[in-house]
Amino acid sequence: MSDESPRLDELNDRSREVFRRLVEAYLETGDPVGSRTLTRSLSEKVSAATIRNVMQDLEYMGLLNSPHVSAGRIPTELGLRMFVDGFLQVSDLTEDDRGKIEDTLGSNAADVPQLLNSVGKALSGITSGASLVLTPKTEAPIKHIEFVNLGPDRALTVLVFADGQVENRLFTPPPGHTPSSMREAANFLNALAEGRTLTELREVMLREIETRRQEIDTLARDLVESGLAVWNTDGAGTERLIVQGRANLITEAHDEGELVRIKSLFDDLERKRDIAEFLELAEDGEGVRIFIGSENKLFSLSGSSLVVSPYMNADRKIVGAVGVIGPTRLNYGRIVPIVDYTAQLVGKLISDRG
């Protein structure tokens, strides 16, 4: 919240209770909440007219909004942020939810991506939202490297990993490259590559090029160096984001406007262009973070909220994240512990599997 935004301590006791009860009712039903509904839930008996006056004050402060002509109000993004920061009560993880998460992680999936795919399905099923799972980068040792000439200004690096994965990466080779210089560059790299990951190979390459500068043909050396940027990227990194449960969001849509926002969200998820930003969101703070509506840099046009938590490997390094995305009326109190527990278990799984 900006300095101009209203603060919780600016509300008196009655305003706080009206605000809290209204947001809780909205998060439960997704519908605008009227004064008559609130008269039945407040601890002190006050008239509907008094409550309407309080609601008008809260609307003037930017915390509530009237979506229709009716007297019902809903919280604004600013109001939801105040509620999450000041009133949200996080419930304990139920045994049922805990069991479903643990059953998924206890499966005998052959590889980590397959297992994390199952985690995503379980997370979307438990929360009735769409789940996002950012998998760790592939760091399997390299088995073989090859260069393929595609023209004067285009070439392909073929990377074969020890786990059988093959990646093809386009790059711009240096002018004047020849089949001979490509073979020499590939031979130089393969002599260094075996048993090393891509990250390790890059560090060794820089040292070896410097110490053996006289031995390596200039074109071959330039070819190796021009590929450094390509070899340092995620390559097929766009597939690192696993998205499950899109249909849940359609089922939850209340009106045509919400369907349009959800379609915009689907477009964002299909492009998957902002994976790095997704991880940055999780890395910015310890534990679970909640992004409401326009606070969410990834899906600002969709009117959605994101609950996200990073997970770590055995070295306590953040390597991925899990999250749930849905309408801003998410049941935050229930979803926060689910995301938190899932992230902790995924981190343990990644650590155990090395």
Task: Please describe what this structure looks like.
The protein is α+β, with helices and mostly antiparallel strands and 354 residues long. A hairpin with a 5-residue loop joins strand 9 (304-312) and strand 10. It has helices spanning 13-29, 35-39, 48-60, 77-86, 95-105, 112-127, 179-193, 198-211, 218-226, 228-231, 246-252, 256-271, 275-283, 332-352; strands at 64-65, 74-75, 130-134, 142-151, 154-161, 166-171, 241-244, 289-292, 304-312, 318-327. The protein has three domains: 8-86, Arc Repressor Mutant, subunit A (Orthogonal Bundle); 95-137 and 238-352, Beta-Lactamase; 142-231, Enolase-like, N-terminal domain (Enolase-like, domain 1, 2-Layer Sandwich), CATH 3.30.390.10. The chain has a five-stranded antiparallel sheet, sandwiched between helices. A three-stranded antiparallel sheet has the order 4-5-6, covered by helices on one side. Strands 1-2 form a two-stranded antiparallel ribbon. The protein is built from 14 helices and ten strands.
Reconstruct the topology from this structure:
Layout: H1 13-29, H2 35-39, H3 48-60, E1 64-65, E2 74-75, H4 77-86, H5 95-105, H6 112-127, E3 130-134, E4 142-151, E5 154-161, E6 166-171, H7 179-193, H8 198-211, H9 218-226, H10 228-231, E7 241-244, H11 246-252, H12 256-271, H13 275-283, E8 289-292, E9 304-312, E10 318-327, H14 332-352
Antiparallel strand pairs: 1-2, 3-7, 3-10, 4-5, 5-6, 8-9, 9-10
Helix pairs in contact: 1-3, 5-6, 5-14, 6-14, 7-9
